[in-house]
Queue: 3 jobs
Job 1
Amino acid sequence: MKKLFAVLGNPIGQSMSPQMHNDLFAYYNIDAHYHPLLVKVESLADAVKGLKAIGASGFNVTVPHKSSIIPLLDEIDPLAREIGAVNTVVNQDGKLIGYNTDGPGFLKGLNRLLPEIKGKNILIIGAGGATRAIYFTLAKAGAKNIDIYNRTAARAQELINSCSFPVISNAVSMERAEGSLDQYDLIIQTTLIGMFPNTGEKPLDLEGVKSGCVVCDIIYNPLETMFLHNAKKKGLPIQNGIDMFVFQGAIAFEKWTGIFPDTDRMKKNVLKQLGGTIC
Ligand code: ATR
């Protein structure tokens, strides 16, 4: 019987996951289909119950359900529990198990530019939901120091206080971040700054950044934000948000099927959906 997969969110029409996963199911000859499902906040519990009742094999969860789904599941993976957000659910013999593949997806996507996180000095810009997944995953992976610069400093401090993995972290101002750029091996931009239509905005100046520092932006619209453009002009290795998106999907696909899929193929699929070219 055809297996059923889905993504639950609101809005959901913009999701690139259905095309990406359906292409993989066809490529690997798996008899399955992945549906986008528009689920309102007040319908989430019913939707999860329904998916369980009809034996859906697994699903993704996106905005605004990543935290509120937790009490509706049978088991939560420890990292997802720590992050407080689930984006992937596996139906294992009738039990719904929740995982977070956003943070691990970011880390795996970064591997090409930075194979080792242990001992690294990192600056994260932002303190929202996506930041949390990345921050906790990098802390768990053994980063030495992760500073957080956020417009609202109190949110950065809250994030730091809530992390139980051993890492040195400070909530820093923009001035302090800019003044310490020569210390960082990796800088990750996780805010909405520079996202379409505000493509002229950037979170900070990269004057004084260490040569070889890897600069990431989790935005993929545009594919190259002003921040990444400036980093590239300085000759720094850069990565946009496509990798995090593709690798979170690849890890989910592996949890559902046992196959770690061809991420270059996934990247091409996503870029086609975005109407761009590989960068
Ligand atoms: P969440 O991911 O939890 O939904 P969000 O409200 O979408 O959070 O914001 C994500 C991040 O983008 C936050 O770090 C937010 O900064 P604040 O905590 O100060 O709100 C940041 N952000 C959004 N718009 C911004 C802007 N115009 N300038 C600076 N930071 C911004």
Job 2
Amino acid sequence: MLILGIETSCDETSAAIVSGAKEIRANVVLSQVAQHLPYGGVVPEIAARAHIDQLDAVIAKALDEAGAAFSDLDAIAATGGPGLIGGVIVGVMTGKALASVLSKPFIAVNHLEGHALTVRLTQDIPFPFLLLLVSGGHCQFLAVEGVGRYKKLGGTVDDALGEAFDKTAKMLGLDYPGGPAVEKLAKTGNPRAYVFPVPMKGRPGCDFSFSGLKTAVRQQIIALGQAPSDAQKSDICASFQYAVAESVCDRAHHALATFQAQHPLAKHLVLAGGVAANQYLRGQLAGIVESYGMKLAAPPMALCTDNAAMIAWAGLERFKLGMTDTLDFEPRARWPLA
Ligand code: KG4
Ligand code: ZN
């Protein structure tokens, strides 16, 4: 079985071919970072136009790398949302056009479900599992009970975690996307140099909040009285990342306790989304998860940030269960998982 996946919801134009035997036969990811860099963030109109310009060639390259022809495909899966609507429309229309011409099933994949299920492409992780989804636009705990079956346990009341990394990076004059830049500088900084508040620490439930931490970082930069030196930047990144990890670990305690009460036999907390690429966060979280007799699982680094292999895989999981869509599926800017 071969599934073509298409991902165009943000600033990566991507196409992938994944097989029923869990082989990633191709995963072509064309980043638009260079086009958005001068603006310090993703410009939706530039993103949509770049997807139009590049997607056909990216799909052709994926087929070529996989050594497959259109006729070898069993179904076409495309991100149907949530995301920047211009880009989502480009991917959905391309997917539908291919499905229509080839007379193959079309599957509209929720981008968040792509992140949620990717770990099952590279590891044997059974349902149910607890998911911590942390990306540029989302930050939530979900109980994943099966394909298409999600229950939200908590989420951010303001900024997403990736957004907090990106905004901190911007305040420090680091390049977009900020997460990798902050993590890199934090490696040489002192996490105790500045004492930032640990958001939501000790509060009941498992919601998140990052806007207060962002404000504290801004006030600290202002308090320096001059542009931060390289050493100060590293210290701010390390101290910010430390507060983030403390907050996520505190919230994870509550989420794990709640989830375990509902699913006593479940074994995994899965960390997914772009921020799951953060090694420091993975390390800090692993200890907490183990104290609950569970294991932390995360996709390989390259599959944490946006890519089409995750869309092809989620499409494949859906296809196997007969969960296909019709050609009147409407692209969605917003599409909650739960
Ligand atoms: O999942 P993703 O690629 O796109 C969305 O669906 O949002 O996530 C992108 C987010 C960005 O905010 C980026 O700064 C963050 O993930 N990110 C990281 C790291 N790598 C990417 N955040 C912290 N540490 C990283 N190493
Ligand atoms: Zn994403």
Job 3
Amino acid sequence: MKQRINELKERFASELSKVTDKQSLEELRLSFLSKKGQVSLLMQELAKIPNEQKKEAGQLINSFKQEVSARFDQKLEEMKKLEEECLINSAESYDESLPENIKKGSYHPITLVQRELEDIFGSMGFDVEDYSEIVDDYHCFEALNIPKFHPARDMQDTYYLSTRNQLLKSHTSAAQNSIMHKYGKLLKENGRPIRAVFPGRCFRNEAIDACHENTFFQMEGIMIDKDISISNLIYFMKTMLSEVFERDVTVRLRPGFFPFVEPGFELDIQCSICGGKGCPSCKNSGWLELCPCGMIHPNVLKYGGINSEEDPYEYTGFAFGLGLTRLAMMKYGVKDIRTFNEGDLRALSQFVSR
Ligand code: FA5
């Protein structure tokens, strides 16, 4: 009996290794485990052998049966997994009724401009930082010189969480304080200027229209070192705009108030949808607020651990808060900002990276 089982084991192993599809696997299973299969034949033979050998022979047959069935299950699992992988990798896993041009997928236009800007600022020595979407009141407002009940908070009403004084960040400036703490030591001990951009999703309880969303993207940038001035700020803004648009765009710089910069500016872009005549995309003004900026307020530098009370102007810096979603509107000529969040593939799949 032992020899017979060993022969069957070998036969089974060799036949199993040749199996390539589920049907032949099932046939093999039946030939071993069905009522007329090899294991049943062994059981019939068991009846004929002397009583004193039955116990041992019975155990051998049982363990053979268990081994065979375990190896079938294992093989079946392997085949299913392989089948799934093939399906995922093959075109068959896609819905054939989808139009050809959207089968491939494409980057969201905001991702495209964000990456482009990261490259531009990266080439000018800026680090690219990531930051949380949930922040606390201190980082979003107080560290930015906006104390509780300051009227500037009205412009940035957002969504508050019921726990730990947290909220969805209303602007990327919320990361300024953490970035200053992160790189301040390198600045002071090694003289390495702080140069960082931090893109991110922002949220505001906003009346939505063609140029306002309640969820939109900004990219913040800061540069801090000794003797940083408004000329540095203007240089970086000009370089950024000419690289992004690769064509002449008309911009204007006017005074703007933000408690965390002094002086502060609004950098507007002439609406590329109407060419400055006025349309719903620019609220009929011909201009779109794109990138407010300014010199970082001494209080903000102090809260960020950069300057001391005694020498509040030891280091100076600029900051800007670029409206990424609006930039994408202007760059791609998208009339309505809501197009970016609607998830309509007919619109979104038109954008391709350079
Ligand atoms: C701010 O958010 C400041 N934190 C920017 C800043 C940073 C100023 C550093 C000075 C120094 P503001 O609320 O204006 O500012 O928003 C900045 C830009 O984000 C706007 O110019 C606009 O392009 C974009 N933006 C603001 N609100 C919306 C909105 N609801 N939908 C789409 N884009 C918006």
